Design the sequence.
């Protein structure tokens, strides 16, 4: 085979792969960030009926998908007009639920998570008492 034949075959393969990817569903991108616009690298996204959590890209805070796989084995394909419900969470931030109607193109959803207000007061709480090897404390 010559070089031109290999290039043509590779181009046809890439075209068929992109056509297949378009048939699966409409791509939806969720961007998880803080109030100042910096991405949250530890954020996860999940559908309420799905068992698996999806991590965002740690550099950009983005997650892109066009289909989800539910617990019963069915596929939830993102199509135009589909109402999408997602739960977004990250350690140290308040969880957020969003609803979004999928459009034909440009499905980019910015989500801003607010940081939790955690008081660091060591005087009030010493931690739980753990008894090793006993059900009842010794009298």
Sequence:
């Amino acid at each position: 085979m010559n070089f031109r034949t290999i290039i043509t075959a590779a181009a046809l393969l890439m075209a068929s792969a992109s056509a297949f990817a378009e048939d699966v569903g409409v791509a939806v991108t969720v961007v998880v960030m803080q109030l100042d616009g910096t991405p949250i690298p530890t954020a996860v996204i999940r559908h309420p009926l799905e068992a698996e959590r999806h991590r965002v890209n740690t550099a950009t805070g983005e997650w892109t998908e066009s289909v989800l796989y539910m617990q019963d084995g069915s596929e939830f394909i993102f199509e135009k007009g589909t109402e999408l419900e997602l739960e977004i969470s990250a350690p140290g931030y308040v969880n957020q639920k969003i609803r979004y109607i999928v459009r034909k193109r440009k499905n980019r959803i910015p989500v801003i998570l607010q940081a939790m207000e955690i008081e660091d007061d060591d005087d009030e709480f010493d931690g739980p008492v753990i008894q090793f090897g006993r059900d009842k404390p010794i009298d």
About this structure: The chain has a mean pLDDT of 83. DSSP finds one helix and nine strands in the chain.
